[in-house]
Amino acid sequence: MKMKVICSICALLVILIISCQSSDSLEFNRYYAEGSVVYQTHCQNCHGQHGEGLNGLIPPLTDSVFLRKNSDQLPCAVMFGLKGKITIGKRLFEGQMPPASGLANIEIAQALTYITNSFGNKMGIFNVEMVNGDLVKCR
Ligand code: HEC
Predict the structure, then answer these.
(1) How confident is the model at residue 16 (pLDDT cuts 50, 70, 90)?
(2) Which of 27, 49, 62, 109 lies most in the core, judged by the most C-beta atoms within 10 Å?
């Protein structure tokens, strides 16, 4: 009897864990898919189809270390633009990224989920709550 109860509790837990994981990955997949469209429309012209950048002018999006280290700055850079010296993949860039005009916070989140999980990067979801929180801190 006791065994049965324990077993059914275990089974329930397993089901719970599995369904939580799949709803997480569903959310990730949705962000990633939408993000690829935002990227193609608003970023690809400059950063390239494979995030390769453009010669010495536009940095590639393949520097996982930079992206990870500066992840909480990325929403501000996309929303308000970025200029000045930055080192990406051991190369120095000194250009200017214009502000993304008319992008909603959710689209920024989707684009960031896309770039931080493409081109060799693997950082997991960048959701709209994170973007909202980071945007408040833009200087
Ligand atoms: C008009 C060209 C242009 C567009 C469009 C553009 N960027 Fe950029 N981006 C740049 C330049 C130039 C820099 C480097 C700025 C500097 O030198 O300080 C940059 C830097 C970055 C960086 C930080 C450096 C790196 O390579 O990791 C990220 C992340 C980034 N852009 C993401 C995006 C995303 C996401 C979009 C679309 C929403 C976008 N960019 C659209 C030109 C552009």
Answers:
(1) confident
(2) 109
